[in-house]
Amino acid sequence: MMRALLICMASCLLVVNGGNIINRCALAKMLHEEDVDGFEGYSLPDWLCLAFVESNFNISKVNENVDGSFDYGIFQINSHYWCNDYQSHSENFCHMDCQDLLNPNLLSSIHCAKKIVSGSGGMKNWVEWRLHCLGRPLSYWMTGCHLG
Fold first, then answer.
1. Which of 13, 73, 135, 146 has its CA 20 to 30 Å from the CA of residue 22?
2. Going by C-beta distance under 8 Å and a sequence separation of 6 or more, which residues neighbour residue 124?
3. Nearest in space to 47 (alpha carbons), one of 116, 99, 101, 1
4. Between 44-55 and 24-33, two packed helices, what is the crossing angle to 10 degrees?
5. pLDDT digits (tens, 9 = 90+) for 65-92
């Protein structure tokens, strides 16, 4: 009886904790629908690698930085430059609330990330992408994903 209870509780925890993680292929489909494949020279696998290294596909991830700014959402978009978190000064170049970057439909995150990518530095603006994705074969990120 105790073992069954433990298994049940563990299953519930997995469901609660996994609620904000998007499936890799579901993300690929969403990104494909938003025309990011080839955007500014970056492939769909680049975008998937970026989402993985920044948030591990966690839509609701928020991370505090040493400068007091925060990174939001699946692409870990910074509040100092790109969105307004109403906690500190922000340039708010994407003209949005940072909370919008936590929305499961991901449109705000994708549109803001496209704005970042279209600026100086492209995806090199993300340190983790530079360290783990840049110059590496990334086609495996699409394995098993059917976009059509």
1. 135
2. 130, 134
3. 116
4. 130
5. 999 999 999 999 999 999 999 988 899 9
Residue with tokens 């590496």: 136
Tokens of 53: 């290294």
Which domains, ranges and CATH numbers included, belong to the chain? 22-142 (1.10.530.10)
Tell me the residue type at 35.
D
Contact 126, 47 (CB under 8 A): no
**117-127 pLDDT per residue, tens:** 999 999 999 99
Q: Which residues are catalytic, by number?
A: 54, 71
- 49, two tokens: 């690698």
- Mean pLDDT estimate for the chain: 89
Place of tokens 């000064």: 89
